[in-house]
Amino acid sequence: MLQISLWKRVLILAVILAGIIFAAPNAFYNRVEGHNDALLALKKNGAMTPEQQQANSAWPDWLPSDLVNLGLDLRGGAQLLAQVNVADVYKSRVDALWPEFRKALADERATLGAIRRVQADPGILRIRIGNGDQMQKAIEVAQTLNTPVTSLTGVGQKTYAITSEGDQLVIQLSDAEKAATDDRTVQQSLEIVRRRIDAAGTREPSIVREGSDRILIQVPGLKSAQELKELIGTTAKLTFNSVISTTSNPNEAVGAGEEILPSSDQKGLYYVLDTSPVVTGEDLTDARPDTDQNGYPAVGFRFNVSAARTFGDYTQANIGKPFAIVLDNKVISAPVIQSHIAGGSGIITGRFTVKEATDLALLLRAGALPASMTFLEERTIGPELGADSIKAGKLAAAVGAVLVVAFMIASYGLFGFFASIALGINIALIFAIMSVIGGTLTLPGIAGIVLTMGTAVDANVLVFERIREELKIAKKPARAIELGYERAMSAIIDANVTTFLTALILFVLGAGPVRGFAVTFLIGIVTSVFTAIWVTRLFISFWFARKRPKELIL
């Protein structure tokens, strides 16, 4: 057991060296972070500013640049609790049904008579049937478009609730479909918010679902909650709608299936639009900052294949007519179709600044939020609080390390010194692993590291005490050390397996700060076993091979 084969020695030393190298960037946090931000800017924009070039050169490219991400409580940042207004989706879903049901019912016009949409509450589609006595036939036709709910909880139920009131056919989403839609809407909103924040270059946001319709968003590094709201607060819902007419009266009466929306840049101008869009932002495959024919900032876009065909057919059939580009219920542009627009690409103009065009392209590229969000809680944590937490954490870690080292050296002399060096390597390995996996360090995580420093020497204490017992029964030093490691091994494994299982339960069942503590503690348990069993033994092996002591005082 005392003799370690050459390949094992090389492997242990390689792990130690790799741990130190990958942990080193955290000792130069600001410099490495500036280097990473400069590379991100180069990847996104194709160029770097002079300041970014200077930051990039501050850290060699050939060295690792992975960092442990600092959590909200250490770095400061913004937190929002958002409620997804899931009922918004009901209206858009039902509005989109009208063309489909109109076509199906029109095929039976000889029996049903005239088909006309009438005004109804949001989320309800009402269709007046000319021959009211044929309502049962109308329901049968409508039921042919009714599909099963695509969710586990809605098995055996239909998507639409189809009823009648007098001569009107009433269509709305069924309760099962509403429940499935709510779940999909929140999940989609969560994913889109995540994509928007990640695309903006922020670091390790925490975006989790809370309850049935709420999302908790935490982004370290942002200066204010307002900055976060500006990034994700808009739905960025883009549609291309037919223009029926223009007006200066925002309260002008409109027909069923029509709506009045204001111009975003011309005060007092309103557009009467068909509520059924030709294509939507969900059909976009790309959006990027661009310029128009006059050199002003604009946003270039491209549709997917099917939407490109639809858009091309629409423009071909409506040459000379205006169509509206609608963003978040405002008409940002209403150009006249001059020619057939094939290929599914074009630009959006609207008197943008460069920043506005860039932000709009980002939002459209990330995708439209399926529903608006109401922010129930806003919180900004300043970096000063995080700095105080880091300072306190460093002090706790330093005091803990000094006390542990002093105890080990006082109790076990040279062997305690070897264990103390292994403890430093253990901390380096924790930071190396967290850097490589992109882990986030929080204040509870620091507590986990401090606790790891105390528990990391447990295995060494077990081994050293066992060596003492072997020396008392007149074992020679080499044999005593060998038996000490051999007979303490089962106790070391049992103790660390039980601790590992406890930390694993904390990670699986815990959330937020509890999980942050569990992550660092889990990593610390694994690295402490490695350093206690192999690193400390390697040091003792090197020392023993050189000194060859006849007696061992421990």
From TrEMBL:
- What Gene3D superfamilies does the database record attribute to this sequence? 3.30.1360.200, 3.30.70.3400, Multidrug efflux transporter AcrB transmembrane domain
> What is the topology of this protein in the membrane according to its UniProt annotation?
Multi-pass membrane protein
Instruction: List residues of the SecDF P1 head subdomain domain.
Output: 259-371
Which compartment or compartments is the protein found in? Cell membrane
Residues of the Protein translocase subunit SecDF P1 domain: 186-243
Main localization of the protein described in the UniProt heading? membrane
Superkingdom per UniProt: Bacteria
Please provide the record's keywords in A-Z order.
Cell membrane, Membrane, Protein transport, Translocation, Transmembrane, Transmembrane helix, Transport
- List where the protein spans the membrane: 395-414, 421-440, 488-511, 517-540
- Presence of keyword Glycoprotein: no
Q: Where is the Protein export membrane protein SecD/SecF C-terminal domain?
A: 373-541
The answer to whether the entry has keyword Transmembrane helix is: yes
Assembly, per entry: Forms a complex with SecF. Part of the essential Sec protein translocation apparatus which comprises SecA, SecYEG and auxiliary proteins SecDF-YajC and YidC.
Q: Which PANTHER family match?
A: PROTEIN TRANSLOCASE SUBUNIT SECD, PROTEIN-EXPORT MEMBRANE PROTEIN SEC
* Function field: Part of the Sec protein translocase complex. Interacts with the SecYEG preprotein conducting channel. SecDF uses the proton motive force (PMF) to complete protein translocation after the ATP-dependent function of SecA.
Family per record: Belongs to the SecD/SecF family. SecD subfamily.
Its name, as the record gives it, is Protein translocase subunit SecD
Q: Which organism is it from?
A: Thioclava arctica
